[in-house]
């Protein structure tokens, strides 16, 4: 953060205190708790400092903007570090859990993980990008994790999709997933059953498996992972050691996959 010179009548200790107070006031606009006022000054001195800071910020409002931007930058860096730590700590369940679908090349040299909801509009938009990646990259392994956060219908669909995964091979499940996720409008039980029937699923087994405790446990595992990764929306991704929330276009996903293959990280 940059500050313009304070009036020369301020002694050095008062100037330092005023700068500290300006920082605290600026950060308070960004939601950070204000710093406690120093007890080394008299009431009159504090009043003088507060007025100088007040007048300074009114004359230089960009200081507040800079403080907010710096705070957001630091928060993003800290959040990324926390997520990377979680990726490393839970890598086995993220990449190799039995409670997930694997499409593309199951023995691929790079894995892209998507946490999704069948009613998520951005997930629907991401479907074409993932399909294009799989078609163009025979060495790509894609993990699909049901993360139903958009209401009861999404939970019901996720149960049926989990049951479908239990009985369908990778290719048929990918067909089911694409058919269901590309369905227009709101997706509920009827749409999930129709998509399963279209790909030849055993419908009687499907509904029985959807009601099993194992199905609920599978969805709970994904929800726990999402919480550990601080995912609060869909789609969310894990690629290399990076965990990302939000839709990503094909070009960006491809670049990250290529980078992992080249240097072991999503950003080289």
From TrEMBL:
So which domain of life are we looking at? Bacteria
Q: Which residues form the signal peptide?
A: 1-37
- PROSITE patterns per the record? THIOREDOXIN_1, THIOREDOXIN_2
Q: What keywords appear on the UniProt entry?
A: Disulfide bond, Oxidoreductase, Redox-active center, Signal
User: Which intervals hold domain Thioredoxin?
Assistant: 75-262
The answer to whether the entry has keyword Disulfide bond is yes
Keyword Isomerase listed: no
Do you know which InterPro entries this protein is assigned to? DSBA-like_thioredoxin_dom, ScsC_N, Thioredoxin-like_sf, Thioredoxin_CS, Thioredoxin_domain
Name listed for the protein in its UniProt record: DsbA family protein
């Amino acid at each position: 953060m940059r500050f313009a010179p304070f009036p020369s009548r301020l002694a050095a200790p008062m100037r330092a205190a005023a700068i500290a107070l300006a920082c605290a006031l600026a950060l308070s606009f960004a939601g950070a708790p204000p710093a406690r006022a120093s007890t080394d000054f008299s009431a009159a001195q504090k009043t003088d400092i507060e007025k100088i800071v007040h007048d300074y910020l009114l004359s230089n409002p960009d200081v507040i903007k800079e403080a907010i931007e710096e705070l957001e930058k630091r928060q993003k860096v800290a959040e990324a570090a926390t997520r990377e730590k979680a990726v490393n700590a839970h890598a086995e369940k993220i990449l190799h859990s039995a409670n997930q679908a694997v499409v593309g090349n199951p023995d691929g040299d790079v894995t892209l993980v998507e946490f999704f909801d069948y009613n998520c509009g951005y997930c629907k938009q991401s479907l074409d990008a993932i399909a294009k990646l799989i078609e163009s990259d025979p060495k790509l392994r894609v993990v699909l994790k049901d993360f139903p956060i958009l209401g009861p219908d999404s939970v019901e669909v996720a149960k049926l999709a989990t049951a479908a995964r239990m009985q369908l091979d990778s290719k048929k499940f990918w067909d089911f997933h694409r058919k269901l996720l590309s369905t227009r409008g709101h997706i509920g039980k009827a749409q999930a059953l129709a998509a399963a029937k279209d790909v030849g699923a055993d419908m009687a087994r499907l509904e029985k498996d959807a009601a099993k405790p194992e199905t609920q446990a599978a969805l709970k595992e994904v929800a726990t992972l999402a919480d550990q990764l601080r995912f609060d929306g869909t789609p969310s991704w894990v690629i290399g050691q990076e965990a990302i929330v939000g839709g990503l276009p094909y070009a960006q996903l491809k670049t990250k996959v290529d980078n992992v293959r080249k240097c072991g990280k999503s950003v080289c």
